[in-house]
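Supplementary Text 2. Reproducibility record for the structural model of the 108-residue chain.

All settings were left at their defaults, and a single model was retained for analysis rather than an ensemble. We include the record here because the model underlies the residue-level annotations in Supplementary Table 4.
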Amino acid sequence: MLNMDITKIRLSALTGCIAKYTANPDIRDVCSAVMESIETGNFEVFEFCVNKIAQWYPNNIDKILENPYAFYKDTHVENLPVIAEIAADLASCRGEYQAYFAGRNSIM
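Retained model, structure tokens:
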């Protein structure tokens, strides 16, 4: 399992970059929810959001790169493997993530 403190930082930067690109609530709400899910210890929302972002990025990267008004294009390209790594780690270490989130719930 990836270090959650580092994952949180990486997701915050990644979701902030998406928020600068689009006002589409379908993805902006997901970006907000993934960060909130870490704070509230909601594994199911975290898993849903990570997977949704991991699907959204490859489906939208060409639009981002072709958009003359898009900022941080290089960062968007760099974010593709970041979200893919987080999603893959989540899939392969799902039990560890569940235990982490369960532990967060027990201290809240």
